[in-house]
Amino acid sequence: MLLAAATLVWLFVFCLPGDPARLIAGGRVADPDVLSAIQKEWGLDRPAPLQYLTYLGKLLRLDLGTSYIQKRSVASIIAETFPATFILAIAAVLLATVFGLGLGSIAALNRGRLLDTLVLVLALLGMSIPVFWLGLMLMLVFAARLSWLPVLGYGMEGMVIPLTSIRLPEWDHLVLPAVTLSLVSMGAIARITRASLVEAGTADFLRTARAKGAGAARVFARHALQNALIPVVTVVGLNFASLLGGAVATEYVFAWPGLGKTIVRAIGLRDLPVVEGCSLFLTAVFVLASLGIDLLYLVLDPRIHYSSTA
Amino acid sequence: MHRDDPTPRVRPLAAALLAVTLASAAVTACAPAGPAPKKEEQVFRFRLHEDPPTLDPALSNDQFSEAVILNVNRGLVELDPLTLEIHPAVADSWTISPDNRVYTFHLRDGVRFHNDRAVTSQDVAYSFKRLLRKETGSPRRFLLEPLEGAGEFIGGKSADVKGLETPDDRTVVLRLSKPFAPFLSQLTMANAAILPKEVYDDPGKAYLRAPVGCGPFRFARWEQANFIELAAFGGYYGGRPALDRVIIRMIENRASALQEYIAGGLDSLDETPSVTDTAMMEKIGKDVRKYPFIGTGYIGFNLALPPFAGNPNLRKAFNYAVDKAYLWEVLSPGGNTPANGIIPPGIPGHDADLPGYPHDEAKARSLLAKAGYPGGKGLPPIALWVNTGEDNRKIATQIQSDLKTIGVDISIREVDWGAYISGVSGTAEKPGQAQMFRFGWYLDYPDADAILRPLLSSANWGPAGNFGRYKNPAFDALVDRALSLTDPKERALLYGKAEKIAVMDDAVWIFLNYYQSETLYKPYVKGVVLSPLGEFRLPLERLRIERDAI
After folding, report:
1. In angstroms, rounded to a whole number, what is the distance separating the alpha carbons of residues B336 and B324?
2. Residue B519, SS3?
3. Which of A121, B81, B118, B304 fits a 20 to 30 Å CA distance from B225?
4. Per-residue confidence at A27, pLDDT binned at 50, 70, 90?
């Protein structure tokens, strides 16, 4: 799968219009001698199949290449920017999961009532509102008007995780981007939770549990919710994986120093190794996240077994 | 809920609790906006749109990189950002031989790099050779190409540059192969910075993320896509700057940056609210500073492609059709001014009396007919290329509409910068696809040569800068001759004549605007220099913060 992804990414990047050498040279004007020297230095003058094979060869050695513009390894760029994206995605998914589950449960428990409709409308709004607009609105209200939170940024004084160079964001800087990013996923999680709970609510085992004298809270938490979690986990997992690569708009609005923004900028600058390396890295993360979801099914539902035979 | 619904029940109060918790997550944090400086510190915070592509002076070719480099590094000479005069920097004096070929620089005493080593003439020689060396890949090695023997050195035929000598530790002699009037001005550019060999010879290239220079600020840290921090250098030859720290924040989105400025997370911002945004202007309108910026905006014609090749009447017709006054006085008011030519005001050679092409629909129609396309009939499809951006789109749409009034239909092709620059410049052999393209040019130094030669000299044909592939021997001769003269008046006269040929005879572009900078500064920022070199040419060593004074 990674080979297919690597090939697709390379093809996509190769087909981008524009000459990377021009942008490496600074863009505006460039001496043709300088341009040809740059093309030679980065192998851009070689035939396309050779460029592709060189790229694959590097990948086999786990070398994601060197940025044309920053002149440093793509791995180091990922190491510097991915933690910010990861932290933002974790915070957003946590918020989305907690409140999505809560709102979905409330809707299910009040099916057909005003509260149910309200939650469904809110969920739909959360899924439909453009992140860019929502981010700006939250910024205007909570930062600009009320001054409760910082407008943007990651902060400069956050704690550095021991033995790493990863600096955590200042927590108040995290709130607005995380809430913005969480609202889309929250809507989806609330809707799927509601649907799963409603479906689980008709199951015989609930009637049995209640007949055996289990209280409403126990029936809900131990029986209904747990059985409804599998589709929810799928949605949460996929949302998390896509947030890792798809937080570009939020990173843009809140000047969040993440990987999404780095990729978009690299596309603009035709910094091909960065685009290729980061895209491939995110593909690998997505695959791993999907694997994680599959493994989580085992924990949630003991009836599920994975076997090498049919 | 149906009567027989088996779904377990919990109290609806939970719903309200959850909603309250959601809201409280967003509002419980009450922190000041932006990275707040410590009380007694002098900290200045400004914004760049994105990370500088490089902090290596030799590789720099953009204003974001220069905004940092020019405060960390110093060259032999520097340009006063306000008066645009050449001032001593690492060299405290220099002499020029009567034949204008030999420049002798005497280095200042007490200049130290940030690693505390004294700067010597050997460092100058090292830095200049590094800039010229092919392996460095500098896009601006042309600055030193006038040196005698530079070509042989670049081509690997000589290990030394013949015209670069260091007779002692404090003297540098630069000998040119022929007189080159803008040479001293070119040495003020960031690329000609003096660098310590022991740092810049590092095969691991650690200097790319931790540059060392001898400027007023030393590099402190750089967090990708977040900020760059500079700290005052106590050993700076010009005295320690008043600012203790400078924080350069990367904020791409204009609306977000404006909010951050209002909230106090920035002390300066290179963008201002629209004059029509009255609410915003009420809040920060008093902080807006407007000042001329030596640059010219234009629509280039591709003279190697039909229908513009060999048809000056058509190009003149387009010029007369575009209402530049409307563009800058009504559509985008308060900033740029309509242009009548190429050389911007303030630069010797600018001719305020050059007629240019004021809006005249009747003349446009008549010239269009004379060009062979009466009422626009017979014209092939024409595309105007712009790189992605709201302003570019607005301007292109207006030009499209203006041309429509004389019967000319053009389409607009909006593409990102990478595709745009390739589509416009083409290759050495083949012209770009773009028949018309919007471009702006900011002068690197205050000399008409800095705009006429790179953009219109046939020596810079194609990707080297003359994207429109303009070739007129009379123009070339004037620009080349001006290079070898030293009398500013005589040079200005020649540049004026060259401009007249390109504007009035050949109408090489649609001459749109002379630029104006608009920047926000908090009132407590003192010592601000509003430089005609642009908003990113900030001499940070002159700034100080006086919050108590307001």
Report:
1. 10
2. strand
3. B81
4. low
User: In angstroms, rounded to a whole number, what is the distance separating the alpha carbons of residues B526 and B533?
Assistant: 19
Give the separation between CA B534 and CA B70, rounded to whole angstroms: 13
**Are residues A152 and B256, on separate chains, in Cβ contact within 8 Å?**
yes
Q: How far is B376 from chain A (nearest CA, A)?
A: 31
* Cβ distance of B225 and A261 shorter than 8 Å: yes
Structure confidence by residue, pLDDT tens digits, B13-23: 333 433 343 44
pLDDT in tens, A240-270: 888 887 688 899 999 999 998 899 889 888 8
**Whether B254 contacts B263, CB under 8 Å:** no
- Tokens 């190009």 correspond to B315
- Whether B358 contacts chain A with CB within 8 A: no
3 state DSSP class of B298: strand
Interface of A with B in 67-86 (CB under 8 A): 69-72, 77, 80-81, 84
Q: B 456-475 residues with CB below 8 A of A?
A: 460, 462-465
> Residues B343, B452: contact at Cβ < 8 Å?
yes
Kind of pairing, strands B86-88 and B337-338? unpaired
Q: How do residues B528-537 score in pLDDT, each as one tens digit?
A: 999 998 888 8
Q: How many CB atoms lie within 10 A of CB A43?
A: 11
**B441, closest residue in chain A (CA to CA):** A28
| Residue B514: its H or E element | strand B509-521
Letter for the amino acid at A230?
I
> How far is the C-alpha of B500 from the C-alpha of B507, rounded, in Å?
9
Please give the angle made by the CA atoms of B307, B313 and B319, to the nearest 5 degrees: 90
The sign of the dihedral angle between the CA atoms of B254, B255, B256, B260 is positive
* Dihedral angle computed from the Cα positions of residues B175, B177, B182 and B184, in that order, rounded to the nearest 10 degrees: -10
Q: How far apart are CA B67 and CA B81, in angstroms?
A: 12
Dist CA A306 CA B420 (whole Å): 52
- Strand, coil or helix: B451: helix
Tell me the pTM: 0.86
Predicted confidence band of residue B5 (pLDDT cuts 50, 70, 90) = very low
- β-sheet bridge partners, residue B47: B249
Q: Which residues of A54-77 are buried (b: 16+ CB within 10 A; e: fewer)?
A: ebeebbeeeebbbbbbbbbbbebb
Give the mean pLDDT of chain B: 90
The ipTM assigned to this model is 0.86
| Residue of A15, A105, A106, A165 to mutate for B, most B C-beta atoms under 10 A | A106
Q: What SS3 class is residue A176?
A: helix
Question: B73: closest CA among B224, B238, B197, B191?
Answer: B191
Q: Which residues of A128-141 are buried (b: 16+ CB within 10 A; e: fewer)?
A: ebebbebbbebbee
Question: What is the C-alpha to C-alpha distance for residues B211 and B325, in angstroms, rounded to an integer?
Answer: 45
Question: Where in B416-485 does DSSP place strands (E)?
Answer: 436-442
Dist. CA B381–CA B414, nearest whole Å: 16
If you write DSSP's letter for every residue of A87-145 in order, what string do you get? HHHHHHHHHHHHHHHHHHHHHHHTTTSHHHHHHHHHHHHHHHS-HHHHHHHHIIIIIII
* Least CB–CB distance from A37: residue in B137, B417, B454: B137
